[in-house]
Amino acid sequence: MSVGGVGEFGLIDRVTARLSYGSTVLLGPGDDGAVVAAPDARVVASTDVLVEGRHFRRDWSSARDVGHRAAAANLADVAAMGATPTALLVALCVPPDLETAWAEELADGLGAEAAAVGASVVGGDMSASPTLTIAVTALGDLGGVAPVTRSGARAGDVLALAGRTGHAAAGLTVLSRGFRTPRLLVEAYRRPEVPYPAGPEAARRGATAMIDVSDGLLADLGHVAKASGVRIDVHRDAFEVPRQMRDAAQALGVDPYSWILAGGDDHALAATFPAGVALPDGWRAIGRVGDGAGVTVDGGRYDGPTGWDHFR
Amino acid sequence: MSVGGVGEFGLIDRVTARLSYGSTVLLGPGDDGAVVAAPDARVVASTDVLVEGRHFRRDWSSARDVGHRAAAANLADVAAMGATPTALLVALCVPPDLETAWAEELADGLGAEAAAVGASVVGGDMSASPTLTIAVTALGDLGGVAPVTRSGARAGDVLALAGRTGHAAAGLTVLSRGFRTPRLLVEAYRRPEVPYPAGPEAARRGATAMIDVSDGLLADLGHVAKASGVRIDVHRDAFEVPRQMRDAAQALGVDPYSWILAGGDDHALAATFPAGVALPDGWRAIGRVGDGAGVTVDGGRYDGPTGWDHFR
């Protein structure tokens, strides 16, 4: 059955019937707005949009995978502010000939990724469109800590990372060359493994700046360096290249560090901590903050690609 | 200059430079997430998406008009829960050849409509897409009142309306027949006049159910009737047909009540109040709630069109 066949309200009924609601949801879908708990009396909010052909392909990812990725991109932004995600809202634009099963499985993926952090899909909107588009807004609660922005890094701070980089970019390269393995990389692209609790934990431990690595490590650290007025140096030997990545890089003629340093979409969290602070669980040192501007690798300029601009 | 020429971050810089931030904004755009005040410790959230060719046309509405409409559709949903809007987040998908001025003026319209209710555009995302798409999420604060849902209407309640209906639908019909006047109707389509404060005021005065009229009065009251398990009767003589609407209807061979009863997009608020409650300023009685199911007009079935399904 196509989306056009069941109609807007029919599809909304089918999708909301598959969702479940956690303790943060005071009023779920079905009204003009949802009501979500905001115990901190401040709410963190972030929006990310995925466009078919640009951010995902239906032949590379299942609907469920796309749901996981769309949710992860947004939930990671909330975690990177030091907040715990509470809710997602989803605007879904679909071609009328799309099978309803695709939209239902997308909702399953969105709901499952949200549930893994205690958040729920609380509302949304649907429209027909020639271009399959998924815009997600995530909300989160700071639980009494100050939000961790991009502007607080100071010379002398330690640069630390939670989660992995380069895996999703390697998976995307593999898929774009027509392969379906290695599984480690392809699955990393399809469903990022985001270290969500590392965000609020870093905030509680005094992280001075934090960012979600979505455009590429060096590009995203560039935003922190600029906002904080510092230079950030990344230590290349802090990154282990897994065997599957090394093999794929060799087979495809790619420098694996271009994935690790410039590949996006794993949604690792990068943060700076005052020197001497014991890094929380899940965080490891990968560099240092100094005086100056920009991002360097082992003290020097990096000449590879550095990130992703969605208009170029 | 095209959007593709300035790039994603260039366009974000240009747009955010035009925005201003009210007292609800604790941290605005430029980080992974915004931080918005939620003094009530609950946040109301709603999402609506506008797709070019389906919800707007660039030859019928200026970018600024589209911004006003996109904001209004979302802010009205928040008001219809009884909440005061605090913030908007905007996911914007644009063809790379779009002029940056269009996106900038869209932001002006979004910001101006938000500012009129004390809310601000606090964040967003941008992507290239073949289809110009604007997904907006609105947040709001309940200020200590219970959210007014669709399910609380009771037999004996008075049905009341704040704002107008039929004007935007009439304006859309006029535009679709190639005319640019009457101004009253065309402007109503381009920039809805939403009675935002009437929402929280109705909540404080004990409204039992409330809804934003976006799909058409009878269709939207149908949602209330279904959720509340009641019949809602609309009194046709409660609606005055303005002269410009009557003239346009006659010229185009349309029943003006099809606009008033079934036309969407004015974003009036419809609410039910216990009999005997003095209606707050800006609200007028337009009908009655009774036992039964569905929506009637003057006690009988309405045979005209009743609303809008975005897939049909």
TrEMBL record, chains A, B:
<dbReference type="Pfam" id="PF00586">
    <property type="entry name" value="AIRS"/>
</dbReference>
<comment type="function">
    <text>Catalyzes the ATP-dependent phosphorylation of thiamine-monophosphate (TMP) to form thiamine-pyrophosphate (TPP), the active form of vitamin B1.</text>
</comment>
<dbReference type="InterPro" id="IPR006283">
    <property type="entry name" value="ThiL-like"/>
</dbReference>
<feature type="binding site">
    <location>
        <position position="77"/>
    </location>
    <ligand>
        <name>Mg(2+) 3</name>
    </ligand>
</feature>
<feature type="binding site">
    <location>
        <position position="150"/>
    </location>
    <ligand>
        <name>ATP</name>
    </ligand>
</feature>
<feature type="binding site">
    <location>
        <position position="32"/>
    </location>
    <ligand>
        <name>Mg(2+) 3</name>
    </ligand>
</feature>
<feature type="binding site">
    <location>
        <position position="55"/>
    </location>
    <ligand>
        <name>substrate</name>
    </ligand>
</feature>
<dbReference type="InterPro" id="IPR016188">
    <property type="entry name" value="PurM-like_N"/>
</dbReference>
<keyword id="KW-0067">ATP-binding</keyword>
<keyword id="KW-0547">Nucleotide-binding</keyword>
<feature type="binding site">
    <location>
        <position position="77"/>
    </location>
    <ligand>
        <name>Mg(2+) 4</name>
    </ligand>
</feature>
<keyword id="KW-0784">Thiamine biosynthesis</keyword>
<dbReference type="GO" id="GO:0009030">
    <property type="term" value="F:thiamine-phosphate kinase activity"/>
</dbReference>
<feature type="binding site">
    <location>
        <position position="47"/>
    </location>
    <ligand>
        <name>Mg(2+) 1</name>
    </ligand>
</feature>
<keyword id="KW-0460">Magnesium</keyword>
<feature type="binding site">
    <location>
        <position position="48"/>
    </location>
    <ligand>
        <name>Mg(2+) 2</name>
    </ligand>
</feature>
<feature type="binding site">
    <location>
        <position position="48"/>
    </location>
    <ligand>
        <name>Mg(2+) 1</name>
    </ligand>
</feature>
<feature type="binding site">
    <location>
        <position position="46"/>
    </location>
    <ligand>
        <name>Mg(2+) 4</name>
    </ligand>
</feature>
<protein>
    <recommendedName>
        <fullName>Thiamine-monophosphate kinase</fullName>
        <ecNumber>2.7.4.16</ecNumber>
    </recommendedName>
</protein>
<dbReference type="GO" id="GO:0009229">
    <property type="term" value="P:thiamine diphosphate biosynthetic process"/>
</dbReference>
<feature type="domain" description="PurM-like C-terminal">
    <location>
        <begin position="154"/>
        <end position="244"/>
    </location>
</feature>
<keyword id="KW-0418">Kinase</keyword>
<feature type="binding site">
    <location>
        <position position="265"/>
    </location>
    <ligand>
        <name>substrate</name>
    </ligand>
</feature>
<feature type="domain" description="PurM-like N-terminal">
    <location>
        <begin position="30"/>
        <end position="140"/>
    </location>
</feature>
<feature type="binding site">
    <location>
        <position position="215"/>
    </location>
    <ligand>
        <name>Mg(2+) 5</name>
    </ligand>
</feature>
<dbReference type="InterPro" id="IPR010918">
    <property type="entry name" value="PurM-like_C_dom"/>
</dbReference>
<feature type="binding site">
    <location>
        <position position="77"/>
    </location>
    <ligand>
        <name>Mg(2+) 2</name>
    </ligand>
</feature>
<keyword id="KW-0479">Metal-binding</keyword>
<feature type="binding site">
    <location>
        <begin position="124"/>
        <end position="125"/>
    </location>
    <ligand>
        <name>ATP</name>
    </ligand>
</feature>
<comment type="pathway">
    <text>Cofactor biosynthesis; thiamine diphosphate biosynthesis; thiamine diphosphate from thiamine phosphate: step 1/1.</text>
</comment>
<dbReference type="Pfam" id="PF02769">
    <property type="entry name" value="AIRS_C"/>
</dbReference>
<feature type="binding site">
    <location>
        <position position="214"/>
    </location>
    <ligand>
        <name>ATP</name>
    </ligand>
</feature>
<keyword id="KW-0808">Transferase</keyword>
<comment type="similarity">
    <text>Belongs to the thiamine-monophosphate kinase family.</text>
</comment>
<dbReference type="GO" id="GO:0000287">
    <property type="term" value="F:magnesium ion binding"/>
</dbReference>
<feature type="binding site">
    <location>
        <position position="308"/>
    </location>
    <ligand>
        <name>substrate</name>
    </ligand>
</feature>
<dbReference type="InterPro" id="IPR036921">
    <property type="entry name" value="PurM-like_N_sf"/>
</dbReference>
<feature type="binding site">
    <location>
        <position position="125"/>
    </location>
    <ligand>
        <name>Mg(2+) 1</name>
    </ligand>
</feature>
<feature type="binding site">
    <location>
        <position position="212"/>
    </location>
    <ligand>
        <name>Mg(2+) 3</name>
    </ligand>
</feature>
<dbReference type="GO" id="GO:0005524">
    <property type="term" value="F:ATP binding"/>
</dbReference>
<feature type="binding site">
    <location>
        <position position="32"/>
    </location>
    <ligand>
        <name>Mg(2+) 4</name>
    </ligand>
</feature>
<dbReference type="GO" id="GO:0009228">
    <property type="term" value="P:thiamine biosynthetic process"/>
</dbReference>
